[in-house]
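Why do we care about 3D structure at all? Because function follows from shape, and shape follows, mostly, from sequence. That is the central idea of this module. The next example makes it concrete: a single protein chain, its amino acid sequence, and then its structure expressed as tokens.
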Amino acid sequence: AYAGEFAGLPSEIEALFAGDAIGLAVLEGIARGDSAGEVQAQLGLDPTAYASTLRRIRRRLTSYLLPTEV
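And the structure:
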């Protein structure tokens, strides 16, 4: 993917990750089509930190998209 063609994430998603710069950067890399290795290299993450970030992203998106009723 070319950097010029990436329009960004929906503002709702950006708002969800407002306090998580690494999470947002990983999501943006994935949305651009970057490989896991590329994202890790760009952000200086080791595989464990990358996996932890993906887990955090997944949990946050899941709770946003599928809220549990109380």
